Amino acid sequence: MSLPPEPRANPALVGQDEAAAALDAAARAGRLHHAWLIAGPEGVGKATLAYRFARFLLAGRPRAPEGKAPLFVPPDSAVFRRIAAGAHADLLTIEPGTLQGDRKRSDVINVEAARLIPGFMALTAAEGGWRVVVLDGAELMNPAAANAILKVLEEPPPRAVLLLVSSAPGRLLPTIRSRCRRLDLPPPNDAALLPLLGAWLPGMEAAERVALARLAGNAPGRALRLAEGGGLAVHAMVEEVLAAPEAKRAMATADKLAADRQGTSFALFFTLLRRAIAEATARAGRGEAAPGWVAARPLADWAGLWDRLGRLADETERLNLDRKQAALTALSWLAAD
């Protein structure tokens, strides 16, 4: 598997040329909006685009060479290298875990981190250009953090841009959303994504890469994470237990999930199981064709099971409970009439 670089160091932009062109045009129009909400499904390249735009602004808004996507900055440039290393004085990144030290959590941006943003944006640019803040996972701000950035959104300093990256923009305060210019990123199409998966996963059969793309909703980052976690195999397990939730299958499935000591397969199994239930019940609720197993119980029961499975997975990970027993519990719920 050939892993791509992290977003701040990734020179490639897959399937998002239209969004990049919109940012390029806005930057060259002379009155760049001070806050952008870059929204879209998980793994479609939102953070990659945010850092690409940051490089473009901090490098002086260079014109992309022929054949290159908008906002291109060459990887050998000093600006690209410093941003990749997290060492550019005019770029601030805020994400879950910032300023939390030993209390680092992956599910929250706290007020101490958010309070860095107004002061940073108000400073004069160290290199005479722009100040840029990338707020990655903006929906994970707690209420105090969200309130801490409102003033800078209402009274933005000159030549400073705040880029909010969010997979769940509906969770942001309406007062934040209303002060941002929104840019929605769709998943790339097959023509853009499948060659990329071929480069990342050269050992995988072409048909499997297509199946992986479908499972990931054509989101490149999600596809890669699924591939790393054996997503196709876990998905097959989910389909098996939903189609035939027999007690005799439960032990073998639980053993497979427990064999992964890192817990990746366990977490992915619950994620894909709940996604399958949500998608199937939604189709059934709209009167569309749905898998046969949906008819085994009322739709309201499936909704309740979806919620119980989420709480079980969360408590198992948060309290470090026995994963095998948790899997057996979940499978017993599926098998119950």
From TrEMBL:
TM regions (residue ranges): none
InterPro entries, per the entry: DNA_Rep/Repair_Clamp_Loader (IPR050238), P-loop_NTPase (IPR027417)
Enzyme class: transferase
The keyword Transcription is assigned to this record: no
Pfam families: DNA_pol3_delta2
Assigned keywords, A-Z: Nucleotidyltransferase, Transferase
GO molecular function annotation: DNA-directed DNA polymerase activity
EC numbers, comma separated: 2.7.7.7
Protein name: DNA polymerase III subunit delta
Source organism: Plastoroseomonas hellenica
